[in-house]
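Data availability (excerpt). The following record was deposited with the supplementary files.
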Amino acid sequence: MTTDMKKITILIEKDQDGYFIASAPELPGCYTQAKSLNQLIQRMEEAVDLYLETVDSEFKRNLQKDFVGIQFIEVPIE
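Predicted structure:
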């Protein structure tokens, strides 16, 4: 049996308490947090594995979003 590999885009942010927070936009509700980036990546790999165990094979086959980039915009805060 061969194992197919798929790249999953992970967004990483840092909150005001210093925790790193990662989420996978193409896997709704799949996220985790950690104090270090190394620990965050390990936890996110586990979170993605667990997430993919809960979805059907059709969902997995349709994971075809290609990451394009990040764009920042400025908006006024009143």
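Summary of structural features: The first strand starts at residue 11 and ends at 14.
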